[in-house]
Amino acid sequence: MAEDSTERSSNKKTSVVNNRRKIMLGAVVAAIVAVMTTGIASTQNSIAQIEGENPSQGYDIHVTVNRHDSMNLNAPMDHYCKLDKRIVAVCLLYAKENAHMKDAGPQLSQVEFIITKDQYTKLPERERQNWHNHAVELTPERGMPSCVSLPQGVECGKLVETLQGTYGKVVTLWDPADAVPDYPPYVFAVDSPFALGQDLNNNLAKLWATGCGNTSSVDLPCEK
Question: Which of 7, 99, 118, 127 is the most exposed place for a label (fewest CB within 10 A)?
Answer without folding.
Answer: 118
